[in-house]
Each structure stands twice: as structure tokens, then as C-alpha cells.
Design goal:
transmembrane helix, membrane, transmembrane, 2 domains, elongated, DUF2518 family protein
Length: 173
């Protein structure tokens, strides 16, 4: 994965190429070359490319990795204060806690708005069990609540429903 230092180096090289295309476009206008307007377009594109690469060098692209977290799938997100993730039925309570913390970190965004004055993001974790052939039942295993106002939330509330894990270990009919 590229780091911000890599994007800074790419933007420097792209800036040099942009300056070269700009000089070439100016020369094309002075000497009335037939492809001078193509060089103007190329220079404009290089300016946009250099700006984009430079902006990527300012914003960290890394995501938080919580040890013990397992893969999850986002199944519902209202873009405001509610989200639901799906996990495998084989998950353990400690893996679920780490996964909820990682989901809370990944789903945090400055653009989320709390509903009705509630500045909390609630993420519920669920899995699907098959009680009978042809019957699937969602089982909610836990939830995490975090604030929407700051990225680092020291008071993040993780709740794991241990009684629901007993349903996961039951043999199916």
C-alpha cells in the first residue's frame, strides 16, 4: 500500500512533468506548432493529476488494525447513526469485541450526522444461523456505541451478548 511519503514523491515528479509540458506548450505557441492546443490540454491534465497526488500526500490512508479482529461485511448503514455488520457464525466473543472496535474505527466519518440530537454511532453485529433447512435466522451478537464528534473515542461502549453465543453452538436439525 502506498504511504503519504510515496504520494509526496509522486507529486514532485508530476510537478516537474507539469512544468515541462507548460514550457513545451509555451514554445508551441511561440513557434506556432500544429499540436499546441493538445499541449495545453495535456498541461491542464497534468495540473489536475499533480494536485490530486499532492492532496493524497496530506491525508493518511492507513486504516486502524485491531489485533484479533476478523473479517466482517457491512450490511446496513444509514449514513447517520446506525450500521449493521455481518460476521461468520464461528466467531468468538473476544474476536467479536475486537471486530466491533475495528468496525467503529472504520465507519467513523466527519460527515455522519447524529439523529435527533443523538451524537452516537451504533454498530450492531449479527450472524445468520440456519435453524432448519430453508430457514435462516439473524442473531445479533453485540453492539458498539461511539461518539460522532471525535475520531478517538476513549469512552467507546462495546457490548457482547454472551447468551446469544449459546445459539451458535446448537446443532441444526
Amino acid at each position: 500500500m502506498f504511504t503519504t511519503a510515496d504520494f509526496l514523491q509522486y507529486s514532485q515528479w508530476s510537478g516537474i512533468a507539469t512544468l515541462l509540458f507548460a514550457v513545451l506548450a509555451i514554445l508551441a505557441f511561440i513557434f506556432k506548432w500544429g499540436f499546441r492546443f493538445r499541449l495545453v490540454g495535456t498541461t491542464g491534465f497534468m495540473i489536475v493529476l499533480t494536485t490530486g497526488l499532492f492532496s493524497l500526500s496530506l491525508v493518511p490512508l492507513s486504516r486502524t488494525v485491531i489485533p484479533g479482529a476478523v473479517k466482517y461485511t457491512l450490511v446496513y448503514d444509514n449514513g447517520s447513526s446506525q450500521a449493521v455488520i455481518a460476521t461468520a457464525p464461528e466467531i468468538t466473543p473476544t474476536e467479536l469485541e475486537a471486530t466491533l472496535r475495528q468496525a467503529a474505527s472504520h465507519l467513523y466519518s466527519y460527515g455522519r450526522l447524529g439523529s435527533r440530537g443523538n451524537n452516537q454511532l451504533t454498530i450492531r453485529a449479527r450472524t445468520i444461523i440456519h435453524a432448519e433447512p430453508g430457514v435462516s435466522v439473524p442473531v445479533y451478537l453485540g453492539k458498539v456505541q461511539r461518539t460522532l464528534t471525535t475520531r478517538e473515542d476513549p469512552e467507546m461502549a462495546v457490548e457482547v451478548y454472551l447468551d446469544k453465543f449459546a445459539q451458535l453452538s446448537k446443532p441444526t436439525a
